[in-house]
């Protein structure tokens, strides 16, 4: 009896294995369950195994391509653009000619700043509003405003009511008359455009300062970008008309470094400070993909700028003892503030960021930024980066407050 039971058990296992191995639908169903649980890599392994057993089963190829696509979406949401592009290449090999996959891969490559390959993908995706918008963005980011406008105007013909296109076109049309008369300069990592009215030789000194910032700030933040960085030098009059920024603005980074230059013939410590400040924004934007509170962004930029120049009479280590801005205010844009409030916002942001660097080191700050780049909240980014200190964001702020002079107020 025992022998018969054992044989029956072996036969049952063999039958089950045959049923699974002989049924691609079963593999697909299991893979879907894994995907629903977020276990994408396991789903991928399951479908690859099935595809090797049933190489001509089209449904498995479709499911495998969809799994690669889901993995790519996850990586794009987390800012892992190059990895997402590789997954989309795998998906497209399984579903050649799929326009959506081509477009998605183009977007991933664009966000990774691989502009040449991204442009090829968008052109392959065919005539349509989305490919044209991104081709225009590539032109804009690389300094070809005329080409950008050409793509965007074609897209507007297809969608006349597209508000985003209207905004992009208006911005480029505002900048084109100024930039079309600019001269050009280059260094190893920077593409410089500058007003022909500016003193000769100043552009070279600005490029030298940018290269110094590249090395110095890059060492602090642990990043040395490989994509070229556009920089524009304006007269103060043109800077105001192009950027429409607040009167107190001494520079701007919006994907391009924009600096107002006026009344100087040689680079000054003040201008070097602004260059270092704005270049810091370049690195923070690349690390965090824009997911960063303004106080941390501006605070770190102030640290780097103040290494080059500190305004006389300003105590770099003291927040105003009786006036502090709430954290919620410091987390949003400063551009709507008046000059006095903006000054306090920058000083408080500097104080908080400098405390983080002094107390926990640049490595911890780098980890906060990297965590933000994974699209987590500031609270989670700090808690993960400062886990060795058992600190979260409220704990960090309490330690900062305790380090201030006793008469200082409290951020809320």
TrEMBL record:
Membrane spanning stretches: none
Mapped TPR repeat ranges: 24-57, 129-162
Pfam families associated with the record: Peptidase_MA_2, TPR_16
InterPro entries named among the record's database cross-references: Peptidase_MA-like_dom, TPR-like_helical_dom_sf, TPR_rpt
Transmembrane listed as a keyword: no
Gene3D superfamilies cross-referenced by the UniProt entry: Tetratricopeptide repeat domain
Classification via PROSITE patterns: TPR (PS50005)
UniProt-listed SMART domains: TPR
All residue ranges annotated as the Peptidase MA-like domain in the record: 239-404
Keyword tags: Signal, TPR repeat
Signal sequence, renumbered to the chain: 1-21
Name this polypeptide is given: TPR domain protein
């Amino acid at each position: 009896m025992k022998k018969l039971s054992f044989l029956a058990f072996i036969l049952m296992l063999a039958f089950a294995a045959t049923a699974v191995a002989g049924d691609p639908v079963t593999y697909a169903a299991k893979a879907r369950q894994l995907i629903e649980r977020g276990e994408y890599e396991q789903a991928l392994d399951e479908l690859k195994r099935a595809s090797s057993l049933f190489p001509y089963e089209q449904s498995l190829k479709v499911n495998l391509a969809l799994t690669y696509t889901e993995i790519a979406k996850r990586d794009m949401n987390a800012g892992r653009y190059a990895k997402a592009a590789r997954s989309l290449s795998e998906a497209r090999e399984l579903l050649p000619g799929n326009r959506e996959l081509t477009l998605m891969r183009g977007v991933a490559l664009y966000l990774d700043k691989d502009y040449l390959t991204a442009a090829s993908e968008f052109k392959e995706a065919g005539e349509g509003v989305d490919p044209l918008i991104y081709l225009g963005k590539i032109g804009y980011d690389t300094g070809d405003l005329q080409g950008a406008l050409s793509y965007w105007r074609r897209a507007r013909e297809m969608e006349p009511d597209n508000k985003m296109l209207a905004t992009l076109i208006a911005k480029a049309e505002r900048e084109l008359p100024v930039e079309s008369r600019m001269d050009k300069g280059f260094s190893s990592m920077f593409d410089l455009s500058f007003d022909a009215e500016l003193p000769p030789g100043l552009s070279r000194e600005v490029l030298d300062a940018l290269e110094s910032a590249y090395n110095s700030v890059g060492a602090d933040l642990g990043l040395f970008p490989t994509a070229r960085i556009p920089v524009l030098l304006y007269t103060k009059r043109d800077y105001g008309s192009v950027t429409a920024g607040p009167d107190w603005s001494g520079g701007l980074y919006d994907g391009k470094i924009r600096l107002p230059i006026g009344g100087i013939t040689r680079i000054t410590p003040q201008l070097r400070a602004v260059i270092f400040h704005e270049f810091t924004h370049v690195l923070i934007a690349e690390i965090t993909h824009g997911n960063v509170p303004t106080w941390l962004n501006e605070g770190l930029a102030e640290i780097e700028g103040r290494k080059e120049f500190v305004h006389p009479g300003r105590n770099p280590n003291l927040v105003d003892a009786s006036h502090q801005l709430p954290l919620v205010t410091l987390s949003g844009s400063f551009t709507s503030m008046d000059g006095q409030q903006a000054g306090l916002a920058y000083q408080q942001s500097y104080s908080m960021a400098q405390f983080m660097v002094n107390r926990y080191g640049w490595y911890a700050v780098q980890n906060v930024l990297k965590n933000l780049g994974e699209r987590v909240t500031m609270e989670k980014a700090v808690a993960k980066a400062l886990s060795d200190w058992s600190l979260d964001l409220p704990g960090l702020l309490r330690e900062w407050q305790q380090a201030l002079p006793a008469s200082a107020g409290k951020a809320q």
